[in-house]
Each structure stands twice: as C-alpha cells, then as structure tokens.
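Hi L.,

You mentioned the student needs an example of a multi-chain input paired with its predicted structure. This one should do, with 617 residues in total across all chains.
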Amino acid sequence: MSTKLQSRGEKATRAGFGEALLEIGSDEKVVALCADLTESVGMKKFAEKYPDRFFNIGIAEANMTSIAAGLTTTGKIPFIGTFANFATGRSFDQVRQSIAYSEKNVKICASHAGLTLGEDGATHQILEDIGLMRSLPHITVIAPADFSETKRAVKAIYKHHGAVYLRFGRPAVPDFTTDDIPFEIGKAIELNSGIDVTIIACGVMVWRALQAAYKLEEEGVSARVLNMHTIKPIDVQAILSAAKETGAIVTAEEHQINTGLGDAVANVCARSFPVPIEMVAVMDKFGESGTANQLLEKHGLTSEAIIQKVKTVLKRKAMTA
Amino acid sequence: MTETEIYTPPILETTDDLAEMARQIRRDIIRLLTMAQSGHTGGSLGMADIFTALYFKILKHNPQTFWDDHDQDFLFLSNGHISPVWYATLARAGYFPLSELATFRKINSRLQGHPATDTHLPGIRIASGSLGQGLSAAVGAALGFRLNKSSNFVYCLMGDGECQEGQIWEAAMTAAHHKVDNLIGIVDFNNQQIDGEVRKVMGVEPFADKWKAFGWIVLECDGNNLADFLNAARLAQSLARKEKPVVILAKTVMGKGVSFFEGTMPDGTNWHGKPPSKDHEAKALNELPPTRFGDF
Ligand SMILES: Cc1ncc(C[n+]2csc(CCOP(=O)(O)OP(=O)(O)O)c2C)c(N)n1
Ligand SMILES: [Mg+2]
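Structure written out for the whole complex:
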C-alpha cells in the first residue's frame, strides 16, 4: 500500500464496541451482561434499547462469566463487558472451565486494557491479559487497532461461533483503519508494504508502528507493517512471509514482554524460520498513574522506540547475513 | 457404541420401585469406582436417592433429543466431583450405554473424572469440577429460558461445602435480583467436605436463613427419603414462578447405603474422595442386594 493512512480524528475503541453491539442487537439471540460498568465499557445504548436482553450482574465478574456460559446453553450469544483486568485475571478459572473447556459461544469484551487506562494506575492496568487468554485452548484473542476496527471486529466475532476475548481500551485514539481490507479473524492486515523489516503490532501500537514506518521510509528503510489484530489463532502465514521476505521482525504491543504478541510471533519463527526479532512491550513491570500518553512514553511504547528497535534488528540482520 | 446398547429405562411407579433403582445405582457407583480405583464415593452414594427421583420422576427430559431439543428441563451439577452418581443415573435413564460406566476415569473415556462437554456425553451441558460455578451457569440458563418463553425448569445441584465459595452467593444474589423463578437449587446438605465436617471446617449455618436472606424460598427435606424428597421437589415446582428462586436443602448422609462408608469415620475422616478397594466392594455389594434391573 503506497498511500499513507491518515487519522480521521480520535475516538475510543470502547465507543466502537458500543456502536457495533447496538447494531448486532437487532438479533434476538444477542444478550449483553455487565458488571456495574455499563457506560464505561460502552454498553449503555444497548441496555437502553434492549432492556430485556441486558443484565447488570453487579460487581461479580466471575459470576457474570459463568452466567454467560449458562446462557449459551439456551441458544443465546452473550457479550459480557467489564474492565480487562476483571474479565481475565479475576475470572480466569471461570473463563477456563465454564467457557473455554466447555466450548461456549461467549464473547468476553474487555475494555480499559493496558497502560492507556491511565490515572487509575497499576491495579486496573492489566498487561497480562493477552497472555492469560492465549494460554487457553478454544479461545480466540483479538486486539483491534482503533474505533473502526473494533466495530468490524465486534461484527466478526458475532458471526463466529466460539469463545472470543476482545481487548480494547479507554482513551480516544487515532481512528485510521479503513474497511477496504475486510476484517477476517486470524488474518493479519498489511498496512504498509516493505522489504527490509516487518513491524508486527496490535492494539494502540498499530498506529505507532505506522508512524515509525513512515519516518523510516524517509531514512531509506522499507518497513512492512502488519496489523496483527488476532493474536490467537495467530496468522502463521503472514509471520513466515515476513520472516522470509524481510528477514527481521519488530513486535509492538501494550502488554508485558512475556506471554503477549511478541512471544506468539517469536514462537512461530523459532519453530519454522528463525530471524532476528526485537520487541517493544512493557519490560516486566507494573504500570502506574498518569495520562495514557505519558505512560506510553515512560514505558517506551512509542514510534521512536519502534524505530530504535528496527535499527537494532537491522544490525542483527546484517550480522547474520 | 450402537443405539441398541443403550439401556431402556423402566417405568418406576411406586417409591419402592424408585428405591430399587436407587439401590441399583448405588451398586453401579460402587462397581464403577472400584474398576476405576479412583473417584468420589461418599457424595455419590449420598445423592443416589435424589438423582433417581429427579431422572425417573421429576425432570421433564428426553435422552433421545438431548442435543437438539431445548424444550426440556435442564440440570446442572455444580459439585462435579459426584460425577459417578450422575453417570450411573444418566446411563440408567437411557442417555448412553451402561457398558460405558466401566470406562470411568480411564483414558479416552467420555466419562471424565469430572463432567466434561468436549467428550460429547449426552446429559452434560457444561463442565464442572472447579467448585462454585454451576449455580451461575444455571442462572444463565434460567434467564435464557425466560427470554425464550420456555416453561421448563432449571435444576442446579450443589454441595454444602461448595457453598463456602463466594461465587455461589454472587449467583444467589443475582437470581433473586433478576427474579429468576424457574430455577430450583438442590443442596447436598451432608455436613461433610474433604477435611471433615462442614461445621468444623467452615460453618455454613444458619444455612436456611442465609438463603432466605438472599431472597430465596427455602425448603428442607430428608434427601435420603424418596417420598420426602419427591414432596419437596413437587412443592418447589408449585412455589416456583412467583418471582423468586427456590432452593431445597436436602439433608443427606455421605456414603448412604453402605454402613462403613456413612458419615464420619472414628478417625474423623470420611469417604468424600476415596474409591472402594476390592474388599470394600464385596462387602458393600452385600449390603446392597442385586435388583431386578441387573448390573452393568
Ligand atoms: C474451587 C475448588 N476448590 C477446591 C476443590 C477441591 N474439592 C473438591 S470436592 C471438595 C469438597 C466439597 O465439599 P462438598 O461440596 O460438601 O461435597 P461433598 O464432600 O459433600 O461431596 C473440595 C474442597 C475444587 N474442586 N474446586
Ligand atoms: Mg458436603
């Protein structure tokens, strides 16, 4: 793709979730459950339009998780919404037994993931959720890049039969993805073509990966950018093509360095086609209070950090060549 | 497995008929546990009367259409460790071949140590074993029934020790708040758990008052007396659909039916999680004479 993607303005991914949920709500099978965060996670409009199919479970996330599993036994498609920390860490055993092992068609919709939750601090900023969820069999893990992609993702997971973990966030972020490439679960989207290196990113880091690639282009480095919105099942084909065709990879995610997207990519390469890989992620630390951008800056989740890692990985690539 | 191997469930008219089936299910439990040399004897024996009453008298169910027809009562076993009594009853009720009981806990069996759905055993709608989750799942199914305008009941079985889990009370609160009145909970109130008597490990009393305070209609009965339990179950059905969930606290004896497995042992332990030895099996089957239904 040669045209540079532009931001059409800033919008929250959770708002994209809310809009799409309202749309698919026209299907009577869709039910929504929330744990006292109806407005925060974007479920308010659904709750108002479909009060019979909306259940506030109160502050009882584990309970909500198992209730959703029970609802599927009567043919419903439950979407549960809460903060990512409580959807995964708090309710891990319920997700594991009642949803994943029981192969239930529940959509776990998790807002306020990662550092970009901001001022509430580390207690709420889960950076381990992708790892927790991708460790479970029978569950699809998706982290869309912006408002528009979150909408497309919600519609895709609604049509997909099976358990899904959908991760999105609190702040308004650049809305830049377009629907000329349809959202397909498990299929990475190439947002920039390149031959020297591939940047593989998910969530809010996709925008930063693009900015990095555009700057690198000015310096004569041709960086491919893959929007790896689905972390599980990961797009093995896209990763191996990147490894073979560009010979170096940088991953970028708003998550711990352990167990996240970087590990998933490295796993694929290590087993089939090893190439130098560098990772932009939170370096085994908890978050803290601050604004979203201050926190991303402090923890090195920026386009500048991606550029640095690209330079490092290109040196390693040159050494192994 | 062919369809013909599936046991044809007998019509059981009288409580004597039911008692004979409960005895057969107890024999099945002892035999399958001895074959497996692993599994939970105490709670399974203690709940044999209730399972017999449920599957042969109370539940509206159809083993043939289990997967496709939602127009039947749903049953959830939250205390999944008593799977032996569930498996034996399901086989006797015509869900799968009796011979399959011999595969319990063995490699490649559909009869997993704790109930599973990925082996596609008819009768099971969700995995259980990690305690505390089943009542929530049952609340979900009951809400689904309501949305589907179904007139069927959801039953949920729980252990008394299991009620130490906070999630049970989260679910209890939810059921009352959302006026889930097509749900009937049944607690195996045997005052036993792994480490001994519930009242010594972590008391749940005043148990009935707790459920009442959480907004439930509470019934109490002798869970090892078929007539008494049948009355309670029918009363529960008649009290349902009045904007409140109903729970039956069924007093049972852990290990019921085999004298040396019953209640607390002299050393303070119980038969919660031990399988019978070959010796135990012979003595236990002596106390449970053969029935007209025959062993598997
Ligand atoms: C969440 C969880 N914690 C612990 C266990 C281990 N465990 C299995 S059964 C049991 C005791 C349950 O007591 P109760 O519900 O009274 O059943 P009973 O012993 O009467 O059969 C325990 C602690 C478990 N299965 N799940
Ligand atoms: Mg008990």
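You could point out the following to them. Residues 51 and 186 of chain B are 11 Å apart (CA to CA). Residues B 159-161, 188, 190, 192-193, 198 surround magnesium ion (ligand 2) (CB under 6 Å).

Best wishes,
N.
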